[in-house]
Amino acid sequence: MKILIVEDNKKLASFLLRALAEEGYVVDLVEDGGVAITQSRSISYDLVILDWMLPSVDGLTVCRTLRSTGATMPILMLTARAEIQERVAGLDAGADDFLPKPFDLGELLARVRALGRRGHGDRYLEVGPVRIDRHERTVTLSGRRLDLTPREFLLLSYLVREAGRVVPRTELLQKVWELSFDPGSNVVEVHVKNLRTKLGEHAARIETVRGVGYRWQNEA
């Protein structure tokens, strides 16, 4: 799943980003409600984790605006507001679920999985011989299950999701390793090499575009 976190508390935002990425999700983070609205119009998200109290535009307004523009992804609101009237207001605005702060990480991940099952009708992503189970986070290749590490799963899922498009190395570092800069290491190359080994005869489907990045090819 591709998740948007909208949270202005830097410590909590960093914690959520790291925890969800470790679970194999593709995660974007913004700190402002107005930016969240703009970004959601140009990027297709499977889930939004939305703080109620935000600068510029509050979470309730973000929720209403997204729904008014036809957005259908599940929205999980994080809030310190426990009063029933406020929860009703959030649900009426279009939220699917609430999680009061402070919360347990295990409960948050369980709610994310539940909302993912509810909101993602296309549980499986199938491109060529690859079938990715978004719920179980498993991959089969021509019917054979691949034994992937969480990071390899995330890398392969991202390339397959963007099949046919050259994905820059910098984008992979950001989306798969949550790095906003290039550390100068060969971490991407090492993981691509490992994936190709596990893909076997289909290794050539991951094409290297020199000086740019990588592209998943439907036809090898």
Q: Concise description?
A:
The chain is an alpha/beta fold and 220 residues long. The protein has eight helices and twelve strands. The radius of gyration is 18 Å and the shape is elongated.
Explain what this protein looks like in three dimensions.
By secondary structure, this protein is of the alpha/beta class. Helices cover 42% and strands 22% of the residues. It is built from eight helices and twelve strands. The protein has helices at residues 10-22, 33-42, 59-68, 84-93, 105-119, 150-161, 169-177, 187-199; strands spanning 2-6, 26-30, 47-51, 75-79, 97-100, 124-127, 130-133, 138-141, 144-145, 167-168, 206-209, 213-216. A five-stranded parallel β-sheet has the order 2-1-3-4-5, with helices on both faces. Strands 6-7-8-9 form a four-stranded antiparallel β-sheet, with helices on one face. Strands 10-12-11 form a three-stranded antiparallel β-sheet. Helix 6 crosses helix 7 (169-177) and helix 6 crosses helix 8. The longest helix has 15 residues, at 105-119. It is elongated and about 60 Å long. The two termini are 26 Å apart. The mean pLDDT is 87.
Please render the helix and strand layout as text:
Layout (H helix, E strand, L loop, with lengths): L1 E5 L3 H13 L3 E5 L2 H10 L4 E5 L7 H10 L6 E5 L4 H10 L3 E4 L4 H15 L4 E4 L2 E4 L4 E4 L2 E2 L4 H12 L5 E2 H9 L9 H13 L6 E4 L3 E4 L4
Parallel strand pairs: 1-2, 1-3, 3-4, 4-5
Antiparallel strand pairs: 6-7, 7-8, 8-9, 10-12, 11-12
Helix pairs in contact: 2-3, 6-7, 6-8
